């Protein structure tokens, strides 16, 4: 359900944002931890592209691993190693809660970006 909501929010964003180029150089008010993700989310256009890319990954199930991101994942895996010795069911619930939390966050960010675009073009919700 969380994945479906996110996908729907991104589809609505794509249908609403007819001219994504209007988002270029528009600063993002939200503080997204993009530096930690090694992304450049300095403007709304970058955020727009990131949200669409995440939806594509979620829907296809294919994860492209860049060399730069692989180093971050290796470091993250080392910090999570103690969790691997825990009960598999507890580990599963930990990851599912994390996934739901992230998907909910991304859905809200997608909806916020759509609302900002509508403000930019002068359409009231």
TrEMBL record:
<dbReference type="InterPro" id="IPR009786">
    <property type="entry name" value="Spot_14"/>
</dbReference>
<protein>
    <submittedName>
        <fullName>Thyroid hormone-inducible hepatic protein</fullName>
    </submittedName>
</protein>
<dbReference type="GO" id="GO:0005829">
    <property type="term" value="C:cytosol"/>
</dbReference>
<dbReference type="InterPro" id="IPR053719">
    <property type="entry name" value="Lipogen_MT_Stabilize_sf"/>
</dbReference>
<dbReference type="Pfam" id="PF07084">
    <property type="entry name" value="Spot_14"/>
</dbReference>
<keyword id="KW-0539">Nucleus</keyword>
<comment type="similarity">
    <text>Belongs to the SPOT14 family.</text>
</comment>
<dbReference type="GO" id="GO:0005634">
    <property type="term" value="C:nucleus"/>
</dbReference>
<dbReference type="GO" id="GO:0046890">
    <property type="term" value="P:regulation of lipid biosynthetic process"/>
</dbReference>
<keyword id="KW-0963">Cytoplasm</keyword>
